[in-house]
Amino acid sequence: MPAALVMQSMLSLVEKQRWSTQPFFRSNVREALATVGVLLAIGMSSLTAWPSLSEVIALGRGEESQCLPFRSLEMTTNCPQEDDWVAHLLAHDTRPVDPNTVFLDVGCNTGADAVKYLDLWGRSPGIFQAWHEGLKGEGAIRAGSCQNNQSTWPQRTASSSINPTVICVEPMSANVEVMRGLHHRVLNSSSAFEIVHAAVSDHVGVAAFPSGQVGTEDFGLDVASPVDPAGNARQIQTVEVNVTSVDTLMTARGLSRVDVLSVDTEGHDPLVLVGASRALKTVRLLFFEVHQDLTGSPWSRTSLLSVAENLDDYDLDCFWAGNNGKLQKITGCWTMQDESTHSPIPWANILCVRRGDEWHGALQKYVGAIA
């Protein structure tokens, strides 16, 4: 079989796989790989250097492959240096900021990241520092947390005269209570900042959620370790909370879009994304965590490859968000072999950006190896 025909067949197969309608799980992937294997066997004699599947995907899009070797994921992407990325994106954003500009923070803990976006995007630069000081005064910054070492945030070069809409969704009652107090004292009860006391999943209902000290970061719908991050034993109690989905939140609040979606739900992120199908059609920037090491969580039974493929169908390119400030590409690069090598993937952070958006181009300067 001529090499060109083999390549054309592979590209056709890859495109068919990309637009599969089965969310998150591709039941026909074995058949696809078997077919590629046959094409390899037939066409090997006519090709001197056979491309990888990721290179085929890149060729199919007319892109130069950005795939780099995946080395250690241990403590290389747990606390990414996102300051420069976000400040760079917002400083080079040509879209006007208005109340329809939405940052949705799912699992916002004590609201630090949400307030950062209000600081950078809104009309009151400097409010993050005041919020951070308020959290310290409440004893809400836990030892070992990423924000424990972060007390400043780069200022936007051109601030807006209009606030965006920032929605902070948090299930733990102690965190919600502290945020409501700071919302009144620091933000003067601004209508641009909304606190929603709820857990988020792929459905609507009620659930028992662990109750802990303010600032606790390792509780989720499926996870509540009897030992805290410092190794101390603790008693776990639960309270009933409402459960909602991202798309339900959008409908309830009449949101036409979500510009930035951040998800940090201690292992529940895959189901949050399943319940965000409408939002993912509009998202420009997406953050979420991988936590396959959390036994019993949705991540413990979900592959990163399946999630990345689904987000690819929404025209989102995903990257490892490195502690060194680099972004290492996952989409079209991460394979089942990588999944097997690094499984279970420990606490790690992913950034995804919409292809064709100006932010996609702006982030290219940060692409590189995270380790």
Automatic annotation (TrEMBL):
Superkingdom, natural source: Eukaryota
InterPro entries linked: FkbM_mtfrase, SAM-dependent_MTase, SAM-dependent_MTases_sf
Signal sequence segment: none
Residue ranges annotated for the Methyltransferase FkbM domain, each copy included: 166-293
NCBIfam families membership: fkbM_fam (TIGR01444)
Protein name from the UniProt record: Methyltransferase FkbM domain-containing protein
UniProt organism field: Symbiodinium natans
